[in-house]
Design brief:
One of its GO terms (molecular function) is sequence-specific DNA binding. It is found in: Cytoplasm. It holds the Pfam family HTH_8. With 469 residues, this protein is an alpha/beta fold. The chain is 46% helix and 13% strand. It has 21 helices and 16 strands. A five-stranded parallel sheet has the order 2-1-3-6-7, sandwiched between helices. Strands 9-10-13-8-14 form a five-stranded parallel sheet. A two-stranded antiparallel ribbon has the order 4-5. Helix 1 links the parallel strand 1 and strand 2. Helix 17 packs antiparallel against helix 19 and helix 19 packs across helix 20. It is globular and about 95 Å long. Bound molecules: adenosine-5'-triphosphate. Adenosine-5'-triphosphate (ATP) binds next to helix 7, helix 13 and helix 15.
């Protein structure tokens, strides 16, 4: 049986393209370009699915969707939007949209979703509170649109989410958005950085301990799982979790119960798990340092955050966002010249959004005029760890050859000098990657934090070049 679809779109060209594609698929398609026309069509015919634009000639297709959903609760609605913000995506799904397609969209994917919608006839979302002031996630690139769509799919359920992406891509921000926009928002959001806790304390951190459980356990301690009861537990840097803790975590996830270290009682906990890592877990599974069964438990809904260099369109809006934020924090109000914005959009951003944020704050402090120009940006970039780190790409053999031409190293320092030449770019890369976070840098390097601090001082590496603000 042919399905009837209602297409509400005021851009004639887009309407024509979608209509043709759907008709090719066997749909009978009616079109309308206004809210009033839509309502009239709905009252005349029964539709298997409606596809609607947001901004229509006489109103907002999302704002008026609630009434449509009330009258036709079984009709799936697909939103087509040029306002590609997380807010629009959330607004759309809150009003009961089945799917959300940011423009420009992939036509094949839209047709597939339309077919799926009429076949399942399920309305994905019931009435939900307005999203409130959810955290801002800036960026309208296609890659971020995909992220927003995934986020909206996990807001009304408790599915475990695994957020993947390089350091500084916004994994924690996404985890917070899932919590703050979801149904557990009244409960606690409890982040745990599993890499930052000493190995011997991680179980007690997660599950708590009873008084006297081990030397130093002078009082009962409630772990993160129990603290997150009714809310969301955000397990960050999950790829760095020690093996024993992985086993206990898996057991807790399977049973929904935890046991405090040194305790005998099993305690039921109601938590939503959102995990994140900047490491590629598959090789860790292969080499035995990450449990495969835990991986499958966590990887129910993977959300991959793209590196900033793959979404150059997002750079300028993010920079503007940080300028506003800096001003709200009491720093001088600055704007960005077009040339400066263009220059920023061309950088490789190895430290991703965090690196951009640090740079914008430095620019705000450095710029003498109200408008941050390309020259100021260039000066910061030239002075940044990236350049110095790239210096490490020089062939170390050639460098040593040059030294030996100039000196016979009779003072016996060749070995030390050569090591320092190697260490400098390694440390700088590690610090650039972690936005100046010494703990994380030390973990990446596999050296003690105090050793790192000492070497940084010996090598006269200035930390503030890498850190925020
Ligand atoms: N899309 C975004 N919009 C606005 N701010 C962002 C966005 N993405 C990241 N940020 C900001 O960049 C900084 C780094 O983000 P976040 O801490 O979430 O990254 P992460 O991926 O968890 O990093 P790590 O793996 O190093 O812990 C934060 O200050 C965050 O607010």
């Amino acid at each position: 049986m042919a399905h009837r679809a209602l297409l509400v779109e005021d851009d004639n060209a887009i309407a024509m393209v979608i209509r043709t594609a759907l008709e090719d698929e066997g749909f009978i398609v009616d079109t309308s370009d206004t809210v009033a026309g839509r309502d009239a069509a709905l009252s005349r015919n029964q539709y298997g699915v409606m596809l609607t634009d947001v901004m229509l000639l006489d109103g907002d297709g999302i704002e008026t969707l609630g009434a449509v959903r009330e009258t036709y609760p079984d009709m799936p609605v697909i939103i087509l939007s040029a306002q590609n913000t997380l807010d629009t995506a959330v607004r759309a799904t809150d009003r009961g949209a089945f799917e959300y397609f940011p423009k420009p969209f992939d036509l094949d994917e839209l047709v597939r979703a339309t077919r799926q919608a009429v076949e399942s006839r399920k309305s994905s979302v019931a009435n939900v509170d307005a999203p409130g002031d959810g955290l801002p996630l800036i960026g309208r690139s296609q890659a971020m649109q995909d992220v927003y769509r995934l986020i909206t799919r996990v807001l009304k359920n408790d599915l475990t989410v695994l957020i993947l992406g390089e350091s500084g891509t916004g994994k924690e921000l996404v985890a917070e958005a899932i919590h703050n926009l979801g149904e557990r928002k009244a409960g606690p959001f409890v982040p745990v950085n599993t890499a930052a806790i000493p190995r011997e304390l991680i179980e007690s951190e997660l599950f708590g301990h009873e008084k006297g459980a081990f030397t130093g356990a002078i009082a009962r301690n409630i772990g993160k799982f129990e603290q997150a009861h009714g809310g969301t537990l955000f397990l960050d840097e999950i790829g760095d979790m020690p093996a024993e803790a992985q086993t206990r975590l898996l057991r807790a996830l399977q049973s929904g119960r935890i046991r405090r270290v040194g305790g005998s009682e099993e305690i039921a906990v109601d938590v939503r798990i959102v995990a994140a890592t900047n490491r590629d877990l598959l090789p860790l599974i292969e080499n035995g340092s990450f449990r495969e069964d835990l991986y499958y438990r966590l990887n129910v809904v993977p959300i991959k955050l793209p590196p900033l260099r793959d979404r150059a369109d997002d750079v300028a809006p993010l920079a503007m966002h940080f300028l506003t934020r800096a001003a709200n924090e009491g720093l001088p109000q600055k704007s960005l010249s077009d040339e400066a914005a263009h220059l920023l959009s061309q950088q490789p951003w190895r430290g991703n959004v965090r690196e951009l944020q640090n740079l914008v704050y430095r620019a705000v402090l450095l710029a003498r005029k109200d408008v941050i120009d390309a020259e100021t940006i260039r000066a910061i970039l030239d002075d940044s760890p990236r350049d110095i780190a790239d210096g490490g790409n020089r062939d170390i053999g050639a460098v040593i050859g040059e030294w030996l031409e100039r000196s016979d190293f009779s003072d016996g320092t060749l070995y030390q000098e050569a090591l320092a030449e190697l260490e400098r770019p390694v440390f700088r890369h590690a610090l650039a990657k972690t936005g100046g976070n010494q703990l994380k840098a030390a973990q990446m390097l596999g050296i003690n934090r105090n050793t790192l601090r000492k070497r940084l001082s010996d090598l006269e590496i200035e930390l503030d070049k890498f850190s925020r603000g």
